[in-house]
Design goal:
This protein is an alpha/beta fold. The chain has 3 domains: 101 residues, no CATH class; 138 residues, Rossmann fold (3-Layer(aba) Sandwich), CATH 3.40.50; 88 residues, no CATH class. It is built from 12 helices and 10 strands. It has a 10-stranded mixed sheet with strand order 5-4-1-2-3-8-7-6-9-10, with helices on both faces. Strand 1 and strand 2 form a beta hairpin. The two termini are 45 Å apart.
Amino acid sequence: MIITDMQLTDTAEGCRVSAVVIWEDNERPSQEIYFEVEKPNAAWLAANPHAFLAAAVVPAMHFGERRVAIDAEICPSLLSGLRRIMRLFQGWYAHYGSTAVLPRIEVDILSAGRPPVNPPHTAFFMSGGIDSLATLRANQLNFPAEHPDAFKTAVVVYGLQEEVDIYHKEMLASLSAIAADASVTLLPISTNVRNLADDWQFWAHEFESAVFASVAHVLSRRISAITLASSDYERDLIPHGSHPLLDPNYSSSDLRFVHDDVTLTRLEKTRLVAEWEPTLQRMRVCNFPESAAQLNCGHCEKCLRTMLALVGMGKLNQTKAFAADDVSPELVETAVQLDRDILAFYPELARLLHQAGRDDLANVLEKKLRHYTLDKQKARLRRVSRRPLATFKKKVLHQQMN
């Protein structure tokens, strides 16, 4: 893979940084990758090669490219981090193989390093979901406004999901009200970097923080540190595209990339959000909103997960973020389908609902948890029972061939 033709250009709408990615070992077309802001925010953008390298390494590894080459000077801190990231994925995911040859990163070394922004300017990524809003609220509660780690800017990224992006004006209006109350500046930025590998499973398991890190580096002219909200509680951590072992490796000498607090459970985060009126009224957790008037559909798993928490806290009937004032057991039965990525969220929800006197909802969740555990145990037993037969068949076949 070659990254070339990096440039900073003015557009009719604003300012754009772009580069061309050329695949060498795959029959994939060359791709122009860009980051774009509106004219009032043009001074934030920089033609920073770190942004494109951070975006490219994981897709290059995923698709079997033998190298990633860019004719630019790269901070050795980032370079070392990217190599650690590839080793982490090699250990986490069997499809890479422990002996696979990792892509070479061919760059020049930035000897002196870039000095960070002074005075420090700390930002965070804001989506409107529980994780990012809890990150904002915790920062507000823990850091005085004058502290260098107090958030000054909320970065909102467009281009990650078409179903959400079509309502960008409505989302921005909702987020603007939260940002105003928190005294942070809203910075919208558009990118197509996810097009390097537009696959949801790849995004979830490998690509997520790489995309956000690439956005962060293109803004490093003004930002010294940026926080990405955590998705998981520390006791439930699993290999994921954003992870506390992974994300800090995207840092460089001039930009600190932070994975936020993993010591809060999903329920504790939801409580932080629900107890702050601006976010209670404007949270947006849904990946598939159905209208500009109601950005949460109210019947997908993510919506139901949040609504159940709000029911348990006595808050669902106080928010305009969801159209419904209550949740039925029938909706939980159909909408909540457990898998490994969301399993850890539900035991604490069931306990909360029991405490709130909503045994009807808690019982459905507990039944689903029992069935999920039983199905996994049955699948494990089937795998174990097949092993002696498979070994026997291999042995017989080997004898017949010899």
